[in-house]
Amino acid sequence: MQTQTVTLIVAGLGITGTLLGSVLSQWMTRRSQHSLWLRDQRKLEWRELLSRLTETFATIVRLENSVLSPEEKQELDAGKMAANNTLEDRLFIAPDVATMGITEAWTKVLNSVRRGALNEADSRFRDLKADIVVAALKSIE
Questions:
Q1: Positive or negative, the Cα torsion across 63, 64, 67, 71?
Q2: What's the whole-model pTM score?
């Protein structure tokens, strides 16, 4: 084999190696960034869920078992609807929400409030919040 041929082969291998290394590096970076993005989306959804349920619980406890003005009735209904929508529109944490039975636990909280068992409702809600926090922390590790 001539020296020129060997030089061309070595140069070709060098260029190929550089290109493959560049492509592999780009793929790994994109994959890592996507993983971080998914984690951020999950964290955001958990935060939205926890905030919405907390806000709605406070509204429900304040208004549920009292005589309501039309504005208060509208506020109560809007809060319940917002909480329901937030439970139902989760994309990235939907499997966790379903597996953990968060919707069912929220329904039990609401039923306790409707019966006037505010201590029970408060206890159920604190447990639900704690479960959500634990799940959120696990899912973003």
A1: positive
A2: 0.77
